[in-house]
Design brief:
Distance between the termini: 44 Å
Radius of gyration: 15 Å
CATH topology: Arc Repressor Mutant, subunit A
CATH class: Mainly Alpha
Helix content: 55-70%
Number of domains: 1
Strand order of the largest sheet: 1-3-2
Strand content: 5-15%
Number of strands: 3
Structural class: alpha+beta
Order of helices and strands: HHEHHEEHH
Length: 105
Amino acid sequence: MAQQNMCPRFEKAVKVLSQRWIALVIYQMLEGPKRFSEIQSGIGVSGKVLSERLKSMETEGIVHREVYPETPVVIEYSLTDKGRSLEPVLRGIENWAEDWVEVKN
């Protein structure tokens, strides 16, 4: 890929993935489909912010939103093929963090 075509794509990818909570939401969903409340309690994000991030990821084609017409309505989120393709990237960050990131208590 030519340098002129790579930079805008790379920049957009970094912009999408660097939004607060996005990578953690994707990472959590690698295990399989999740309901909103499962994602929220798993990472401790506010409902408003999580809703915004999920909508953004749905627009980007990273997440699929499935509505089950039950009472009450059940909504489940899962990764699309595009979203699942981020697994090696996130696992790489996970491995790098284990080796190089220090967490202070």
